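If you are new to this repository, start here. Below is one unmodified record pulled from the training split, so you can see the exact layout before writing a loader.
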Amino acid sequence: MKKIQISPSILSADFSQLGNEIKRLEEGGADLIHVDVMDGHFVPNLTIGPPVIKSLKKKCSLKFDVHLMISPVHKYIEIFSNAGADIITIHPEATEDLDASISKIKELGKKAGVSLNPETEVDVIKNYLSQIDLVLIMSVNPGFGGQKFMPEVLDKIRELKNIQKRQNIDFDIEIDGGINFENSKIAIKAGANILVSGTTIFKSNNGDIKKNIDLLKSS
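And here is the target side for that same chain:
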């Protein structure tokens, strides 16, 4: 079984103190930094862009797990790579050629991830699983933080684990959306090895980041 990693979403951080928040996450035992990039088009919200990522990267030694919720995504891949993204995750619906977009990420020396919205089936990416490093399962509809976890998406994680065994291929399975101390347990049991969490990490236990990360890891 893979080591459980925690990728805190800075969507729930204090945006007026992002540099300090990143430091707190690193000191608190985070494995990755999850950056949600939204364009107000692919999803109904706007967040941060490449200049912010570039600035934050200077403050942190952790890898940046960048989730691009933008469309069309292909032309922005290199920009985010240059800004400091280490893992670049895209949605199949946001590119005209998923194979070309995955190849572009890999050519830039980055890890390639593909994200599945709650209504998107595993079949959409079955032919690409040997090429990618990570599958991000959305357990809420993307666009806003603080939504309620959708347990039905766990079936997709189980399906992916079965494919891994049958085809002897390896990729990380990440889950994002409403992750807390309770549902993290069932997500890990289903086969997820990277947990994205925002509200739980920044707000629970009076904002004790280290305690919250430790509790998620020990689920």
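Two things worth knowing about this chain: The radius of gyration is 16 Å. The mean pLDDT is 95.
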